[in-house]
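Quick one - inputs below.
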Amino acid sequence: MQTVVFLILFPLAAAFLLLAVPRGRIRTIVVSVSAALIALAAIVLTAQVLGREAQFFEAGGHVTDVLIFAAEAALGLIITVISFRRRQYLAAALMLASLIMTVVYEVKLAGEARVTYNLFVDNLSVVMALIIGVIGSLIAFFALGYMEAYHRHHPDVPDRSNFFFFIVFAFLGAMNGLVFANNLLWLFFFWEVTTFCSFFLIGYGRDAVATRNAFLALKFNLIGGLAFSAAICLLTLNAHTVALSELPSAAAGAVLLPVALLAFAGLTKSAQMPFSAWLLGAMVAPTPVSALLHSSTMVKAGVYLVIRLSPVFTFVDGGKTVGLFVALVGAVTFLLASCMAVSQGDAKRVLAYSTIANLGLIILCAGLGGPKLTWAAIMLVIFHAIAKSLLFLAVGTVEHAAGSRQIESMDGLVGYLPRVAAAMIVGIAGMFLAPFGMLISKWATLEGLVDANPILTIFVAFGSAVTLMFWVKWLGKILIIKSAPENIETHVPGTQSVTLGVLSLMTALVCVLFPLVSKYFLEPFILATYSSGYWQNAQNIAILLIMMAVVLILSLPLVFPGQKERSFRPQYLGGANLAAKEKFHGAMGQDIQVTLKSMYLQNIFGESRLFPLGVVSSLILIIIMLGVVV
Amino acid sequence: MNIATTVLAILIYLIAAPLVGGLLAGVDRIISARMQGRYGPPLLQPFYDVLKLWQKENILVNRQQKVYVLSFFVFVLVAGGIMFGGGDLLLAVFALTLAGVFLVIAAYSTFSPYAHIGAEREMLQMVAYEPMVILTTVGMYMTTKSFSSFDIVQEESLLFLRLPFIFLGFLFILTIKFRKSPFDISMSHHAHQEIVRGLTTEFSGRDLALIEVAHWYENVFLLGLVYLFFAAVPAVAVTVTLATYFLEVFIDNNNARLKWQHALGSAWLVTLVLGVSNVILLAFR
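Output:
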């Protein structure tokens, strides 16, 4: 239990310390040590919990409850005031409404529901704690070098990096609280804190766009927050419990509507259609923020909650219908977001759409529930967290080193930033390519869907096909070989290279060791939840591992070129090559440099066509979902 | 299926598939010639072509491209090995996709405008056929409760009877996979369709030979999938499989190349109408 409390409170303490520490070497030390301690604590917790049943802790009493309430009210007031001063009246009204609900609840209803155990830890919490502790901390470490460079690149942005690191660490603490909370009131508190943290991080640049997008994120997530508090009120009134662990065994009448509302909150936080706009807007923030929001914090809170709810969908009468509509929202989001990713040229936007799509896939699995799909959902969370943080940080590094984050400008990246390109390739391979990472889970998803609801495989079939397209054309751009590129790798700060290296290694390790991850982390959790397990077919695991080995062997000549020198011919340019490579003699008598551009298929997969479609269809699905239970 | 028979099956596939594929290619050329009022090359001409390519100088634009081509070749074999070894069909399809990705990357790496366009079109083709291929495996699972080709081939009733629309949809995308007109948009074996040969513009010698042999392996893999639809009655299965190949040759000779928009649009439409309706029918029975 000490480890759990440490994981919640220590990041917060580190956060306050970082507010006081000046930038420079002392900050580097404080951030590195705190990050290492958080990661270490997550690993220690793993050792303590793995192989045991879920443990519940009372943790705190009346005083803690009052403190949490006070903190929630104070934060709510601060946000309300900020919104008013920025003339964001809708945000202010939403915040105020949420605040009033919290106060009314505290005064009128708080006595109605008693929770014995406020905190708990099981294998799923441990998986999340590892993601937060290891990947989140790595991103904080990466931010050290990045933020220095960021302020050099953006002299107009006031340097508030103390505040930046304060929020980052507070964020990690809140996320830990969120995954260990059994008391929904506590969970809600941490839930709202993550909303506020992302609000401050997105608005870091303080220009008009950053401010607008920060408030957009705030508004969407506050709507989810309102649904969350409504769920808590209903649960207190009808079910007399606000313990997460008691939901699957509660009476259907009392629990269905609150669970639907909680799932709704999960959809907003994990940026599903129709709420995806806030995550796309969040791209204005410095890259470590994007990496943090997309991989280890924020959006993962949303899918975490839905995964926690999936036993309720399965075991409570009528829950399957709610779950089905949640799954449908995920399915629609997966398909449309994957399509829209094809039309994007900005690497960060491609990554954003890919995140939204993958979260949709996780929601699809969690909504339907059952052993196999829960397995797939958690595997997706793990692989996505590692590979996506790696990709964001790699894109951020390229942006600073080469001056652009457009995919079109990454032609031949492997020539001038070989190590960063290698990290990016590992990330991309981990995101979609057989036999690695996400594909293992996508495969389990397909297998699970055929049993659970075969019609939904249609979404996955089409979605996966377009996924292939946007990743391969990016991969292809990176791997273009140009003549005599100049290596500019020395421009990359050390903290960034180290983080990219560690994350690449982790991606590779998790791919190779996924059977162990499954055996020690996932299977016990699934067995405890559904009292039947999901074991992958040993033969298929063997095939996957053999395929990985084959890829590794085949790529050896790329990494270690032999001594033998041979001459290469220039490519065919219509018969008028010039002596200089990649130039040709054009029809108008000029010498023309070859440039190649990719297809973006705006007319087919453009945002302006598909986004409104997604918003309308998912809104209808959500309305039906809530309508069914009311 | 024990290990010895699995290994044997895979070995037979590895050795026999290129022979069968090459012979089919030879038959293809003779039939095509007759359809065009020519006499045509000898049956073994495809083998002579590959042997000749093998002896030619391998002209390269960069060091990496032949590694990717080899990877493409190996993973086409892996895909077939998984299927003919009785393994999981989804895995086999994924392995084939991985192979396709390697081929596209090989073309991209050369930084050649013609290869680049070919690579993008190849990618569009993958996007066009992939949903139907996945739905085919899904349909087979729904009728046999297994993704394993070993289980599917032992199914006692004809899969075709419960998957008629999926079979038709699969036939449609087979034209793309066989690289036949009207869907040979990334590279065409008809000289009248393109002046520079798209995807394979920058490959020569042994690399081009490897790509050709991989294509034979791939064709046998695809015909193997066709076989599975009728596996309950082997005689029918063999007949239908050969008839399918003949049908593709026939279509090839009677169509000019379409734009990629039409390939993508029609393939998705066919998948939506035929594939999806079949899946829905199966789900509700």
